Amino acid sequence: MVASQAFAKIDLVTLPNRDATELTIYNSQDLTLVRETRTLSFAKGMNEIQFSWANTLIDPSSLQLDLKGAKGLTIQDAVYPAGTTQLIVWNIEAEEATSAAIEITYFSSGLSWSADYVIKANNAETEFELQQFTTVRNNSGEDFDNAATRVVVGEVNLIQLIADLAREGIKMEPEGAARELALDAMNAMTQRPAKSSMVPAAAPPMAQSRAREIIKKAVSEYYLFAVEGKEKIENGWGKELPNPKVGAIPFALSYEIDERKYGDQVVKFYKLKNDTQAKLGKEPLPDGTYYVYSDDGRAGMRFEGSTSSKYVPIGEDIELNLGSDGLVLFQKKTMKSERTNFDFSTNGDIVGFDEQRTVQLEVKNSRDRKIPLKLTHYIDGDWEMLESSNPSYEKVDRSSIRWETTVEAGQTLTMTYKAVFHNGTRTKSN
Amino acid sequence: MKKYFPILLLATMSALPIAGHARTKLVTLPDRAKLVTSLENPRYTLLYEEREIPLQKGTNFVDFAWNGVSIDPNSVMIELLTNPGDGDTATKIIATGFPPNEQALTWQLFAPEARTERIRVSYLLNGITQDTSYEIRMNQKETAGDFQQYFRMQNASGEDLDNAIVRLPLMDDLTRSMDSGEVRRFLASRVKELPVRKVFIARPGYETFLGEDGENIDLVYEIENKVEAGLGKYKLPNGKARLYGDDGMNSSIFLGEDMLKQTPPKEKAELTLGKVKDVVLKRRLMKDEKTNVRTNIQKVPVMFDQVRQLRYEIENFKEEPVTLKITETLNGDWEIKEITEVGVSTERKSIDELVISVELPANKKGEKAEKKVVDVSFLVKNRFPGEK
Predict the structure, then answer these.
(1) Which of A139, B24, B62, B346 gets the highest tally of CB atoms within 10 A of its CB?
(2) Is residue B182 within a helix (H) or strand (E), and if so which, with residue range?
């Protein structure tokens, strides 16, 4: 019982238990919408319901009390008493003595959530098992027991940080802003649908016998992930909840060379799409860190790398950059350069020429298996390809070409090309 | 006996929540059944251990603490090996709790019956560093050497590794114990008679001619990472190589050391150990002419060809034939026009590197060394004013 403990921070004078708590935690902002239900007893006449929140990170301006349509009860006003910063008193008039389940909502800072993913690939690196974890961290100053946990993916706009509002206490806004906020608050009050019993009374604690299902739902431009069941999340603690595993997800292994992106490193990727073909695609994947392992073929596991990924919408590519494994090496050499086709001005000065350059690209594969390779190579200037040992490249744009090929196990792939570069008056393009 | 960290502890409770005070009545678990230090990732050390833990029917709490050990807490993972899966009979991982201000976490497991479960706990461990070194003990003729590849591991992680399987990329496993603070060196591979080729390499500067002073000549030993030589299975990683020579008096001398650059299978590694004194190379610029000069109407040169003739005067004072390689650094559109001596071969490595190899006969004892004079002429075409 929160209010009776030494660390209890939120206090209602009548000291009722929280019947239920719901936490809706955002990850784009330090923001959690806390919704708690308590059953209060009212005497006939005016009742003062006092709510205090010492040493917590609650935004006082967000506090709302909803009578949930209880008959014979009317909220007269809400008072922030002089000289206090973490106290609100609701004056509620009761026509008769009664009890009612009321709902209090507020914004709190200090709760956060993050997504992590663990990938375990097979030894052939063709399929992997994916498990998503949702970790909730509570540094709000408040213990939450028996709390329904929901996390929100999406970018929510805040004019002011909740942590700042919690620190400042009640502070009047400049006039115009205050009027708008008041109007918003009124609209919110009047438009809120009257739900008689949003959260049932707390069920007795039971032994959880399986990983919790995560119920996923699109709401406006946000995605809501609701964790099945109730959690105890004490202040200072983090709690990681596993989602069910998705197995045998096909993916593409790729080694990539791109000097402008990765320098001279050959970078390894696991690639797939967030779609049904990959046994995914039912919801977006929140941004998070992927820990990638593979079966090392020796009854053990190999750590391939960890990489953070942005939010992946449904249907979008997932590209996990695992860094260099040190087993594939790349070298580029210019072998020859010849100047030809000189243009002279009427004065006899050189005003243009061509340069024919022969370049050799070498990829050494030390792995014991054939690897797919994507090699993006940059050629600056006004150039034309004259000959190539591997002509099946794609011209990506005017200054880059790309080969998609394979390198056999333990082999060196050597590719050469000769290109002509036009200079000065020989230049054909801008 | 030192205590091992991290510590895995077990508490079995019916419905106790994950909380700090719930982790007081704890039982130390059996020792690790298996411990693997995987160094296959070039940047991260993955440690995983397997243990058999007794679980009671219902909810069990397993604590994992790593005081004094540098672990990436986000990487700590538990896997169930005996009864994994989603079915009713499987053991389940329900949640992981992270207590405040502690290097610890608590797993909440559910077992449908009392059972022993083999679990694997894995995490990324900081503080393990590794390197490779090589030792080659040459035979007296310097044609082959006893090649030993050592793997060195420093454990500054704070964790004692007892009977750990050390797993290296593309190499066989090693099993070793290693206390925190220790550095250990393991023999990773050995080839008793690895063919070694001794070559002399001069690397003169393009515009630097030392004339009578003679050029520096490096003493280089070449080895090949190939199957025929007894290697070739794996890439040789970067590492310091030390070579020792047989002095013919049942002892050895240190010949020198160099960094062996990572060498994939089928590639050659060069180790430069010192300077050669018994072969003398004098390199002279005999000709540096502009030809085919093209001018504008004011007779100002706008382009020219360049003819450079380099002379190499070489003397071998050794009583054995040697190969001298001269690596020239060049520029522009160059080609070799003429080489005056037979038995000289050249290899264009790239636009700016040419290797000239000269075979030198042995010097006959008591006779004056034969001086070999090699002239090499280069034509560099279409240079612009200001270009060397």
Answers:
(1) B62
(2) none
> What are B179's two structure tokens?
């206390």
- Partner-chain contact A205 B17, CB within 8 Å: yes
Ordered strands of the A45-53 beta sheet:
A10-12, A45-53, A87-94, A73-79
Best mutation site among A113, A303, A411 for testing chain B: the one with the most B CBs within 10 Å? A303
Residue of A nearest to B75 (CA): A291
pLDDT of residue A224: 82
Closest CA in chain A for residue B100: A236
Distance, CA of B73 to CA of A291 (rounded, Å): 12
Mean pLDDT for all residues in chain B: 86
Range A328-424: architecture per CATH: Sandwich (2.60)
- Give pLDDT tens digits for A83-126: 777 888 888 899 999 989 899 999 999 999 999 999 999 999 99
Q: Are B167 and B40 in contact (CB under 8 A)?
A: yes
Every domain of chain A and the residues it spans? 2-111+142-191, 328-424
A190: contact with B, CB 8 A cutoff: no
Whether residues B38 and A410 touch (CB distance < 8 A) is answered with no
Kindly report the backbone phi and psi dihedral angles of residue A175, in degrees, each rounded to the nearest multiple of 5, phi listed first: -50, -55
Q: Do residue B44 and residue A412 have CB atoms under 8 angstroms apart? A: no
Copy the structure tokens of residue A402.
């790309």
Q: Say if residue B84 is exposed, middle or buried (CB neighbours under 10 Å; 0-12, 13-18, 19+).
A: middle
Q: How far is B226 from chain A (nearest CA, A)?
A: 11
Mean pLDDT of chain A: 83
Using a 10 angstrom Cβ sphere, with 0-12 exposed, 13-18 middle and 19 or more buried, the burial of residue B53 is: buried
List helix spans (H) across B147-277.
Answer: none
User: Is the pLDDT reported for residue B21 higher than 90?
Assistant: no
Burial call A285-310: b when 16+ CB within 10 Å, e when fewer: bbebbbbbbbbbeeebbbbbbbbebe
Quick check: B167 and A368 CB within 8 A?
no
pLDDT digits (tens, 9 = 90+) for A3-21: 333 333 344 444 467 788 9
Contacting residues of A for B46, CB less than 8 Å apart: 293, 301-303
Distance CA A371, CA A292 (A): 18
Q: What is the DSSP letter of B213?
A: G
Write the pLDDT tens digit of every residue in B129-155: 888 999 999 999 889 999 999 988 889
Query: How far is Cα A361 from Cα A416, in angstroms, rounded to an integer?
Result: 6
